[in-house]
């Protein structure tokens, strides 16, 4: 069995309980060494074989996963954040399926959630934005034409942009071209939840300048949107005048038999 495990955004105690148990039981761990905190591996058995996929091709990774699973070993493929975002897991899953090897996935805390905690932000604020766009700039991996930053920016929803820290002049231009105001609040969150985390608040217009000033070129998320502004309407969920499935209006939250 191969399990694709989300390692979380960085801090070694931000993996799930299940993910850590799988690491403890693993005979083989293949981890994404470019972004996974190696401290996570400390719980492994002495006999566990560890591979760093940063130095391997897909074929080499598959060889380790397939041979391990065929010889009855517990194999963990450890990906940063949650494996479902920019994890290149589907191609591994499909290759395993083709070989008849069973696999599962164990979710993790994505870095976009780590960034929200670093910012003390809620991405969905009443009267401001109720949607989050997770996207990236086209790089060596292309992005479909209909998913341009400019197109998404026109919605003025909250945007969290992955894998784009090296392209901030173009990113800010696209965000502005799409319709964000120049002074729309933005932030660069470098290594969210790691000990050397850095949070730089700025505006859409000053993203590139801010990253340059702070020397940030990678391992960062860009967040843009008025949810970073601090102005919003109170939630209906906890409004005394609003009934929910758990609470009648004006009840004050007291528990009744
Ligand atoms: N599956 C991962 C994303 C992998 S893509 C997840 O769910 O988070 C790699 C990109 O994620 C990086 O280029 C960076 O944009 C972002 N990233 C990963 N970890 C990060 C962290 N701790 N802080 C900020 N950005 C991070």
TrEMBL record:
GO molecular function, one term: precorrin-4 C11-methyltransferase activity
InterPro entries: 4pyrrol_Mease, 4pyrrol_Methylase_sf, 4pyrrole_Mease_sub1, 4pyrrole_Mease_sub2, Cbl_synth_CobM/CibF, Siro_Cobalamin_biosynth, Uropor_MeTrfase_CS
Source species, domain of life: Bacteria
Pfam families: TP_methylase
Listed pathway(s): Cofactor biosynthesis; adenosylcobalamin biosynthesis
Alphabetical keyword list: Cobalamin biosynthesis, Methyltransferase, S-adenosyl-L-methionine, Transferase
Presence of the UniProt keyword S-adenosyl-L-methionine in the record: yes
Entry EC no(s): 2.1.1.133
GO biological process, one term: cobalamin biosynthetic process
Domain Tetrapyrrole methylase: 1-208
Similarity comment text for this entry: Belongs to the precorrin methyltransferase family.
Protein name (Swiss-Prot/TrEMBL): Precorrin-4 C(11)-methyltransferase
């Amino acid at each position: 069995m191969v399990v694709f495990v989300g390692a979380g955004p960085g801090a070694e105690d931000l993996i799930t309980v299940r993910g850590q148990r799988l690491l403890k039981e693993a005979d083989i761990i293949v981890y994404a060494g470019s972004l996974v905190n190696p401290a996570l591996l400390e719980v492994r058995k002495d006999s566990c074989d560890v591979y760093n996929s940063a130095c391997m091709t897909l074929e080499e990774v598959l060889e380790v996963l397939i041979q391990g699973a065929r010889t009855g070993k517990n194999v963990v493929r450890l990906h940063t954040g949650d494996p479902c975002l920019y994890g290149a897991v589907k191609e591994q899953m499909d290759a395993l399926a083709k070989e008849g090897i069973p696999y599962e996935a164990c979710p993790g805390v994505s870095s976009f959630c780590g960034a929200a905690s670093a910012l003390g932000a809620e991405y969905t604020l009443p009267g401001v934005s109720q949607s989050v766009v997770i996207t990236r700039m086209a790089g060596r991996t292309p992005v479909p034409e209909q998913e341009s930053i400019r197109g998404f920016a026109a919605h003025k929803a909250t945007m969290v942009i992955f894998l784009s820290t090296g392209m901030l002049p173009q990113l800010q231009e696209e965000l502005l071209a799409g319709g964000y105001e120049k002074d729309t609040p933005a932030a660069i969150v470098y290594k969210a939840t790691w000990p050397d985390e850095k949070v730089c608040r700025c505006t859409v217009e000053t993203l590139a300048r801010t990253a340059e000033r702070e020397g940030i070129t990678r391992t960062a998320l860009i967040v843009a949107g008025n949810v970073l502004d601090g102005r919003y309407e109170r939630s209906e969920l906890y409004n005394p005048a609003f009934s929910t499935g758990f609470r009648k209006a004006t009840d004050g939250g007291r528990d009744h038999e």
